[in-house]
Amino acid sequence: MGKQLLLENINVPGIETLSVYRANGGYKALEKALKMQQSEVVDEVKKSGLRGRGGAGFPTGMKWGFIAKPEGVPRHLVCNADESEPGTFKDRYLMQHNPHLLIEGMILSSYALGANTSYIYIRGELLYVYHILEKAIQAAYDAGFLGDNILGSGFNLNLYCHLGAGAYICGEETALIESLEGKRGNPRIKPPFPAVSGVWGRPTVVNNVETIAATVPIINMGGEEYAKIGVGKSTGTKLISACGHINNPGVYEIELGLSCEEFLFDDKYCGGIKNGKKFKAVVAGGSSVPILPADLFLKTAKGEPRLMSYESLSDGGFISGTMLGSGGFIVLDETASIVKNLWNFTRFYHHESCGQCSPCREGTGWMEKILNRILEGKGKQTDIDLLFDIQSKIDGKTICPLGEAAAWPVASAIRHFRKEFEEYVNKPEEIVDVKHYYAVNNLQQSAK
Amino acid sequence: MSKEIRFTDETMALVQKMIKRYPEGKHKSALIPMLHLAQMEFDGWLDSPVMDYVASILKIQSIEVYEVASFYSMFNLKPVGKCLIEVCRTGPCWLLGAEDLVKHIEKNLKIKDGETTPDGMFTLKTVECLAACGTAPVIQVGETYHENMTCESVDLLLGEYKIKDARKTHYDIKHISIK
Hints:
CATH class of the largest domain in chain A: Alpha Beta
Mean pLDDT of chain A: 94
Number of domains of chain B: 2
Helix content of chain B: 40-55%
Low-confidence stretches of chain B: 175-179
Structural class of chain A: alpha/beta
Structural class of chain B: alpha+beta
Number of strands of chain B: 4
Order of helices and strands of chain B: HHHHEHHEEEHH
CATH topology of the largest domain in chain B: Glutaredoxin
Largest sheet of chain A: 5 strands, mixed
Largest sheet of chain B: 4 strands, mixed
Radius of gyration of chain B: 18 Å
Mean pLDDT of chain B: 89
Oligomer: heterodimer
Radius of gyration of chain A: 22 Å
CATH architecture of the largest domain in chain B: 3-Layer(aba) Sandwich
Low-confidence stretches of chain A: none
CATH architecture of the largest domain in chain A: 3-Layer(aba) Sandwich
């Protein structure tokens, strides 16, 4: 195992309580940060090279640097705990077991940004985690880590949880802001960016749970030390939530730059494919990123070993690469049907499209219909090209990245597994899954 | 709905605290948390008089509540059973057998996805990714996640919930104090 910065104490009994968290070095980073200038805290995060852990990988220090500071206008920090990307369950794991790590990160990040009221937007389904957070926040208030004049520094902060109600799109930061304002989660047109005009028109920074949590070890060890972990511009550690057909599903903290082969096959991590089956494909960073066949996941198109880092996973662009994304790592074995898996994801994006942009609202539905047709054995050869054509007309033509998230899995599945689509189309009687009739009919009925 | 729609005093106090979490004049932000409370207090779903009531407390138009309630999948706009069984149907859960679970529950309860048993006890609903893919397939009942589910464990689960009012035992936003 590499360095464990976020999960180090996750199995310490009672770590969810303030006293045990304190006894294990908790709130030291906050004490340190409050003795620094606000700009110095931002500088440490800049030096660390930390990149947004929610999926986009945008440098956090730079994002913080963009925040507008007009005189007399309050600023806000909002934590994005609306973890809904299929395959991703790292934030839930972290918040459930070590809530104070997030809270400490929220306080010191709010200090760095000069925010006096901050929110944790948590998805509604995670009500039990909401209760864990509320309890931990209360304990932090009681101990003087929240409220007025925190630890005698003169810095005031109120921290609140805000419960969502089931909408994938609210993981997109401007949709999240709309939702926090009590509206439908329709993403906003940018610019203006949230750093200038976010929640209630005020300068706002939205960061993922893991990003905020990572600021704690960064302040503890210093940005430069943190940047020594990892490889190139992929600094530090990343939580990977591994699932699907593997022996050891779970959340792992890896040093960025670990070899993909080691991560998938070593017993310390995924432990190889379940039931002795063959490794077929992987969706390496949450359902939105392009699917990769086994050989291209283990080695790049140039024949170099692939690494778990932002750069290595995207090596070869979308022709032969993918993305690190949110770290939602879904493994498919030889028995999995790529077409069926794609149908499931496409149905998901159709369901979750907010409906603002017609390419996404209509396109995702069309793609679902065509995939239904193929799976039912009524597909035509031209359907495969039609699917590819539709996705290309969604990609890049929508307000928010949900359009791309729906398009990329389709493009990559056809690019790498066209043969499978052709088998469905050419030999339907041999391959058509009876189950699918059931599933589709059922879902259509429930939609009525 | 014949009875008067009104939050209990305890819930009302909580609503007032929730509204104070947002800046003055921005109280509409409390809408989604309030709809959760309303759904819990008024039989697990949002009838239009309930939504009108929420609008009146927040001093906003009813349409502002309807458009939000209809957007988010957790808000039920039709009556549901006392025990809402939510089966994750996305990606990893589907890959690891959620489809079989749905089929099994449908057979067992003699209802289809989205329907409620005639005795008003169970509603089956398939939902999107619950962020528990490592322990797939997952079923959520009230606040509780039931992980690594099989047809056998589903039977046990249904048996357990048959003897208690799941919503009252499990789905309670109020059991925590709000500062």
